[in-house]
Design a protein that fits this description.
CATH topology: Rossmann fold
Number of helices: 10
Radius of gyration: 17 Å
Strand order of the largest sheet: 1-2-4-3-5-6-7-8
Largest sheet: 8 strands, mixed
CATH architecture: 3-Layer(aba) Sandwich
Structural class: alpha/beta
CATH class: Alpha Beta
Low-confidence stretches: none
Number of strands: 8
Strand content: 15-25%
Amino acid sequence: MQLVEKILERKGCPLHYWEGGPEKQPLVVFLHGACVDHHSFDLILPVIAEHYHVVTLDNRGHSLSQPMGESYTTTLAVEDTLAVIQTVGGSKATFVGHSNGTYVAQEIAFRSPEKVQALVLLDGTCITWVRSSMEKWLVNSSPAWLKFWPYENLKKTSANMMANKQEGKDYVYRAYSQLSKENFITLWSGVVRCLHDEPDYVIRQPLLLMHGDNDTAGDIKKIAPLWAARTPGCEYVIIPNAGHMATLDNPDFITAKILEFLQKTLQAK
């Protein structure tokens, strides 16, 4: 399935997005992780687009969506995403987020629940979880110490940690290399500010929560089973043979699970 590339100029940034699939079917929006791009879903999205109206984009400041314009924040990413959805004529969507894309999807569900049909969250933590002061400090201070990490070493180390397969490692390195170190830190600074304690909040939309069995990023594996247990009707799946870049480590498994979930949730033909 070939997607059509389009551009939406918004707040100083040319937001590149891609649209395809049968327009009369429910809308499914794919949101990539921090400092990578829409190619994270290359092995998954074409299959979903055979059955559903799909949209994906390069978030502000990532890959083709440069210059960044206004500095990246999760709030701005939410606004950008909803603007793209409005442009394609959507009023409600299922959001498939990976890593930081799950944070954008969660924030859309928190701020604008009427826009969310369902959620598929891959390799992401809960942004509304109540964390300790030390945990918050470690997250919030990370952009400061990244400034002292030589960028070439940072790219190689991150790539090796994030994926099991060499193809995934190579992809992460290439994606990071599209960014200057200054922009990388600006993006990461916006990402880490996404956390906010909401002890009484739970996601009410249908939720498929997945992460790789070898995902060592942050507190994803620690919180996921607790998060799933407190979320009514959540389907929790551990992806075999996958690290943090599970979309590239085990795309066939993920695609099958997403299709199964969408068919149950959206009842599309």
